[in-house]
Amino acid sequence: MHTLIRWPLEHVLACLRDASPSVRVRTARALRERCSDGRSLDYGLSEALVDIALVDPDAVVRTEAVHALHEACRRHGYQVPSLVKELARDECDEVRLVVAAILGEHEDRGHVTILEDLLRDEVASVRAEAAASLRRHEDTAGPAVPELIRLMREDQTPDVRRAAAEALMGHSGAERDLCVAARADTEESVRVECLRSLEPAVAAEVGEAINAAITSLADECSAVRCMAAVTLGYAPHAGAQRALARLLREEPEWSVRAAAAESLGMSREPWALRIIEELAVLDRHPLVRGRAAEALGRYAGERSGAVLCDRLQTDPDPRVRASCALALAYRASPASLKTLDRAVRREPANASFMGALCRASANAAWPEALAVLVEVLLSPDADPVARADAATALLPNDTLMRLRHGAFPRRMQPQAVAHVLDEAVTGDDRLISIVVRNLRGLRDPVHVPVLAELLNSANADLRAAAATALRELAPAARAAIPALSNKLRDRDRAVRRAVRKALERLTQDRTGDNAGRARSEPDSQHRNTRE
After folding, report:
1. CB-CB neighbours of 517 under 10 Å
2. Is the peptide bond before 236 cis (omega within 30 degrees of 0)?
3. How buried is 189 (Cβ within 10 angstroms: 0-12 exposed, 13-18 middle, 19+ buried)?
4. 121 and 153 in contact (C-beta within 8 Å)?
């Protein structure tokens, strides 16, 4: 049946209206698979699917038709036709379920009314899907808030209550009910979702929401306590920070202590950071120490550098040392770079250390950092992941800008960057794909010299990617026209095609500018004549 989707439109429409239900099912299923594979539907097919879903007597056919419509809406932006709304009253449960999902793909005030009706459906899965779709209608779901609150408070199915709580996030009229459900609901997953939905209210310093989160720190379920600690991280409130500090000292569950350490770090208060240094970095569980180290790297600034350097060298757990390396990479200071460099030389096989060193070097502003990247990239013994990190780090705007303006030693001008990348990717297909992807994403004119040099690369993929990037940089890449012209007879067909497209774009821009100037000159002469 896969060959059916290559048939002319009238043949496919005939199969959708065939007398045999099995033919209609297989046809609709083939169209659904076509959409799932990334191919779009003709307008006539979409309309035919809606008609089949509305009038076909076989429930299986109607179900496959609405599934195909859902894929078309989800993957290809197909606009929900008005007739789909009629399907919300279909007698088949699965049809109504898929219709609820379809109505969530596009934000429309008219869909909210239909979804509100589906919240009262007799089938729990349909009610849950309607609530999930209303979550995606966040800006227009106001009329459905009372019904969502009723579901969260009264529905007998935990999945429905959880979906309703999620849909109520950000609605100011639902905060009180969310607080009550966070404390009193019998299902722990619902209490977790209520706390997550209270994050905007906690960030806005709504006292009732903050108190509900603090109360949930004593919940019997560790997942609820963990979510309460995460939610309190958004509260710029001294009471919330004191509760987190107390939790960090007294909580028996390591996952809750880890969440408390990160949330306490978000406050950036000096006393809170000192508690993280004293307690969390020395915690008995390695994952708590790791999360605490990352929190210090993100939020503590220079003052915690000594603690991180010490833990990088002395912690017995490799996961904690990797977290300390990542925390030092956030900082990108000379001391951090030197500490990471020593760690890499001490444990050359540790890919986490090498990756952190590459990230720190990419954020750094001194020549030695770029030298580290080049050394890693050209080292045949380096970990493949680290070499990929180094190749990626050489390509951001700020790094190449420093190279362009001579911040790196003179021997490392743009021509040298191109040479380094060319040498590094030889024989490494994974690294080639990473460099090509980064080249195609360059959008700053400062990259033009390096891209022009990469047109001479020994690797055809790099040459084609450089030509494509130069095309996207038009008209700023006109300086590369001579280098592109030299590649019109390249031995690789893909390179020649990319070069031709780049030259067409660049010459069109030049022609357009000349025509604009030519049009402006007669106007100025005419004004001078009149004067």
Report:
1. 9
2. no
3. middle
4. no
Q: Which amino acid is residue 382, in one-letter code?
A: A
pLDDT in tens, 230-256: 999 988 888 888 999 999 888 999 999
In tens, the pLDDT along 262-307 reads 899 888 888 888 888 887 678 889 989 988 888 888 887 666 777 8
524 contacts: CB under 8 Å, gap ≥ 6: none
Between CA 253 and CA 284 the distance in angstroms is 11
Question: How many whole angstroms separate alpha carbon 391 and alpha carbon 238?
Answer: 44
One-letter-per-residue 3-state SS of 422-482: HHHCCCCHHHHHHHHHHHHCCCCHHHHHHHHHHCCCCCHHHHHHHHHHHHHCCCCCHHHHH
Q: Which of 242, 163, 178, 181 is nearest to 209 (CA)?
A: 178
* Model confidence pLDDT, tens digit, residues 485-530: 999 989 888 899 999 999 988 887 555 555 444 444 444 444 444 4
Rounded Cα gap, residues 42 and 46, in angstroms: 6
Quote the CA–CA distance of 116 and 376 in Å, as a whole number.
Answer: 58
Alpha carbons 174 and 162: distance in angstroms, whole number:
14
Cβ atoms within 10 A of the Cβ of 127, count?
25
The structure tokens 């307690």 sit at 279
What residue spans of 77-187 are helical by DSSP H? 93-103, 109-118, 124-136, 145-154, 158-167, 175-184
Give residue 48's Cα distance to chain centre.
35
| Token pair belonging to 273 | 């950071």
> Which burial class, exposed, middle or buried, applies to 38 when counting CB atoms under 10 A from its CB (0-12, 13-18, 19+)?
exposed
Q: Which amino acid is at 199?
A: E
Question: Residue 26 in contact with residue 1, Cβ under 8 Å?
Answer: yes
Task: Report the length, in residues, of the chain.
Answer: 531
Residue pair 32/40 in contact (Cβ under 8 Å)? The answer is: no
3-state secondary structure (DSSP) of residue 395: coil
How far apart CA 92 and CA 491 sit, in angstroms, is: 60
- Spatial contact of 103 and 70, defined as CB atoms under 8 Å apart: no
pTM score of the predicted model:
0.66
